[in-house]
Amino acid sequence: MKVYIDGCEVELVQGDITEQETEAIVNAANEELIPGGGVDGAIHRKGGPSILEEIRSKYKRCPTGEAVITKGGNLKAKYVIHTVGPIYKDGKSGEPELLKKAYQSALKLALDYGLNSVAFPALSTGAYGYPIKEAAEIALKTVCDFLKKHKAPQKIVFVLWKEEHFQIFAETLKSLISSK
Ligand code: AR6
């Protein structure tokens, strides 16, 4: 599924983010920037050790809601933007704001680096337990608002690992567009 927001493309695909050929892919990292499972594990496995070496040489940690950038090592993407989404507790502990901030921080870095295309996973919806429907609404609204404001990056891809997540993102994007 593909839509255009002020001339910028937002695409939803089902698959593996490490296979994306966008200029940057976004990693669902943790505050310690220690490679874990899920997207993080897959990125470090496929990208090779240079990604962690660059992290260790430049960054100590990354607070929730913030992001850092490294090169992409052996990945097809030139850069990896490591952003930290919130651990979901009850939805009333600042999680929506922090999830929004995690997307915004990644998008801001993409802008600073002049990147034209960025792929995102559904941040916080795996190990961090964020309910998918709420997470999809925040992810898509935040990205669309950013594109309207900055008219960049030119292309955003959401890469959903699970069929169910893809369907929920697609429904959410449709209703977001039609409510305009
Ligand atoms: N491509 C795209 N999406 C994927 C992939 C993949 N290769 N693999 C999993 N997903 P998660 P989080 C989906 O756990 O919830 C790590 O240990 C997955 O189905 O990767 O933000 C880190 O080190 C889910 O919907 O990230 C942190 O400690 C989504 O990606 C912690 O997990 C996010 O799941 C971060 O947890």
From TrEMBL:
Ranges where the Macro domain occurs: 1-177
Stored SMART domains: A1pp
Protein name, as recorded: Appr-1-p processing protein
InterPro entries hit by this protein: Macro_dom, Macro_dom-like
Pfam families named in the record: Macro
Gene3D superfamilies per the UniProt record, alphabetical: Leucine Aminopeptidase, subunit E, domain 1 (3.40.220.10)
Organism: Thermodesulfobacterium commune DSM 2178
Matching CDD domains: Macro_OAADPr_deacetylase
